[in-house]
Amino acid sequence: MKVAVTDANIFIDLIKLQLLGYLFSVDVEIHTTREVVDQLNAGQYEKVDSFIQAKVLKVYNFSSEELTEIVEMNAPKSLEFPDKTVVYLAIKHSAVVLTGDGPLRKFCTSNQLTVRGIIWLFDIFLKAELINHTLAIEKMNYLLSFNDRLPKDECMNRLKQWEIKK
User: Fold this and answer.
1) Residue 10 lies in a domain
2) Are residues 87 and 151 in the same domain?
3) What is d(CA 139, CA 160) in angstroms, rounded to the nearest whole number?
4) C-beta of residue 10 within 8 angstroms of C-beta of residue 22
5) Do residues 138 and 144 make contact, with C-beta atoms less than 8 angstroms apart?
6) Is 112 in the same domain as 137?
7) What is the pLDDT along the chain (166 residues), one digit of tens a residue?
8) CB 113 within 8 A of CB 97
9) Containing domain of residue 139, as a range?
10) Residue 127 lies in a domain
11) Residues 72 and 31 grouped into a single domain
12) 11 and 98 in contact (C-beta within 8 Å)?
């Protein structure tokens, strides 16, 4: 099974879209770090915690030695500490990184890590038949209404493809 390490913005977007549960229904083992979970507000944490309790979301707690390594990681200043923990854990597990954060994506790519985002998750949810094209269109349009970091051209291409298939 493929392992993916997820940052906070993926959780936040999936919660807003009411699609979080689908993340744990695909053939990917989902990991994150305590530092990422700590970025969530109380309502978001409550939704994520149910998956932690069900043991389908693995939350990594670093040792003091690992935290020192993360602090000393040669990374751009634009990366927040929780983002560095995602990179560290992904390297440690040879995992895919799930993020929508530009600087994190760029740093991961420069370190030869595979990076995927929410559009990829839509593709996976569709392929697994967890959602249909009509729901994908509805959710993508909603996502575009609150997330201005998305690659608009790629989103519009998906919407066109899904419209044909619905």
Assistant:
1) yes
2) no
3) 14
4) no
5) no
6) no
7) 699 999 999 999 999 999 999 999 999 999 999 999 999 999 999 999 999 999 999 999 999 999 999 999 999 988 999 999 999 999 999 999 999 999 999 999 999 999 999 999 999 999 999 999 999 999 999 999 999 889 999 999 999 999 998 7
8) yes
9) 132-165
10) no
11) yes
12) no
